């Protein structure tokens, strides 16, 4: 057991579990006291159903929850609502009282849902929380936007604040502030943040600073921090293979974003190499061997044909040099990509169970080379981007996501890989 999520409602427990699952963690939401061996799971998320109950009862429920897993000493995530409803102070105090050495890192933002924190106040879609519809919430009316004030009113511990200026200075500045606050006896630190990049910098600082800390957030910070803390220990049981044949500007940006945001290994195979492989499939072996060497270290491996503009070849010139039409040359390139993919997936020790393919013609060639008759469609990941299972052949049942080369935005490739990783993650199921 690596991470214990304590959420005040089931929706929050599930949401944080889902974010951690996307990072490759084996995550489960617990609806009642768990009698199973907790060490079987990377992440256990507990729902205390304590958002709208009195302060003291919320405190007690969190203490009871902590007692279930304290012997495992996991990273604790005190999941809070993205609009700050609930017994924030009582539940954070319960965690610190249980271990007075711990310091709470409160990163109360969810940028992809337009929840950001500036000057210690929460903005929802650019509007102060108290001026949103949450002001009229029947159970938990939110009439205060300042997270600092909410915690000062609800917690017995002194509150510290790391402003956006410090976050933007980078992880070294954040580490410096955290050390100083901890040495001064601070136990609750509230961060400003406006982007996922801000969250990433805070997570890096928290991971480097070597202080006993726990997460207080709606989920994104927990996912980033846990991913960093356990990256060397955690490996997906099933891996993803990426085959990218498109050379569009959009594809180049998507690849760059994937490399920046996720730990992946992609071999760039230039068109001259692909022509050689299409002519003699044995020439794929060095690339295949390199990829197989990396599969233990990386959860996502694969090939692309372009990462920079200078990698884009002149198909007209290549066709003329090989006495072929552009269509014939293009088909040979796609066949070579399919050949590399097949050799990796067909290897006896391959643990690839998910395939991402960019480019319609590449998809056709890969599916044919794998001996599949097609794929059973299950979902639309994004517009013109589909998920399904291969039907027939040696890779029958493998998960596949495929899209066109000119489809999506800069984040689409990252989204697809996260989606596919979640689909192929190994999950243990409880027996009732």
Automatic annotation (TrEMBL):
Keywords: ATP-binding, Carbohydrate metabolism, Kinase, Nucleotide-binding, Transferase. This is Four-carbon acid sugar kinase family protein. It comes from Gilliamella apicola. It comes from the Bacteria. Pfam families: NBD_C, SBD_N. One of its GO terms (molecular function) is kinase activity. Belongs to the four-carbon acid sugar kinase family. The keyword Ribosomal protein does not apply. Residues 242-413 form the Four-carbon acid sugar kinase nucleotide binding domain. Residues 4-224 form the Four-carbon acid sugar kinase N-terminal domain.
């Amino acid at each position: 057991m690596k991470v214990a999520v304590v959420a005040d409602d089931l929706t929050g427990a599930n949401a944080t579990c889902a974010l951690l699952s996307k990072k490759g963690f084996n995550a489960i939401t617990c609806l009642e006291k768990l009698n199973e061996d907790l060490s079987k799971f990377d992440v256990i998320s507990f729902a205390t159903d304590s958002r709208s109950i009195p302060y003291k009862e919320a405190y007690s429920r969190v203490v009871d929850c902590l007692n279930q897993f304290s012997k495992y000493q996991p990273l604790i995530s005190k999941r809070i609502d993205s609009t700050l409803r609930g017994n924030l102070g009582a539940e954070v105090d319960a965690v610190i009282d249980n271990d007075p050495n711990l310091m709470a890192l409160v990163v109360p933002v969810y940028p992809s849902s337009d929840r950001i924190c500036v000057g210690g106040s929460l903005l929802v879609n650019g509007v102060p929380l108290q001026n949103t519809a949450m002001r009229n919430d029947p159970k938990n009316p939110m009439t205060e936007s300042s997270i600092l004030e909410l915690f000062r009113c609800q917690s017995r511990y002194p509150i510290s604040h790391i402003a956006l200026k410090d976050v933007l200075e980078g992880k070294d500045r954040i580490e410096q502030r955290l050390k100083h606050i901890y040495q001064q006896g601070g136990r609750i630190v509230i961060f400003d943040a406006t982007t996922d990049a801000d969250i990433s910098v805070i997570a890096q600082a928290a991971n480097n600073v070597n202080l006993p800390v726990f997460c207080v957030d709606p989920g994104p910070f927990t996912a980033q921090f846990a991913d960093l803390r356990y990256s060397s220990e955690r490996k997906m049981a099933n891996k993803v293979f990426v085959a990218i044949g498109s050379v569009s500007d959009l594809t180049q940006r998507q690849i760059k974003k994937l490399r920046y945001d996720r730990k992946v290994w992609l071999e760039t195979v230039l068109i001259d190499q692909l022509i050689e492989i299409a002519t003699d499939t044995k020439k794929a072996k060095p690339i295949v061997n390199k990829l197989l060497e990396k599969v233990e270290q990386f959860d996502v491996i694969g090939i692309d044909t372009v990462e920079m503009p200078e990698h884009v070849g002149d198909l007209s010139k290549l066709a003329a040099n090989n006495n072929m039409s552009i269509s014939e040359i293009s088909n040979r390139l796609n066949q070579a990509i399919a050949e590399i993919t097949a050799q990796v997936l067909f290897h006896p020790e391959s643990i690839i169970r998910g395939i991402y393919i960019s480019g319609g013609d590449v998809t056709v060639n890969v599916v044919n080379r794998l001996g599949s008759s097609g794929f059973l469609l299950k979902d639309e990941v994004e517009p013109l981007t589909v998920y399904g299972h291969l039907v027939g052949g040696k890779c029958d049942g493998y998960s596949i996501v495929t899209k066109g080369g000119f489809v999506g935005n800069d984040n689409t490739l990252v989204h697809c890989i996260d989606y596919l990783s979640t689909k192929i993650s190994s999950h243990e199921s409880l027996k009732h």
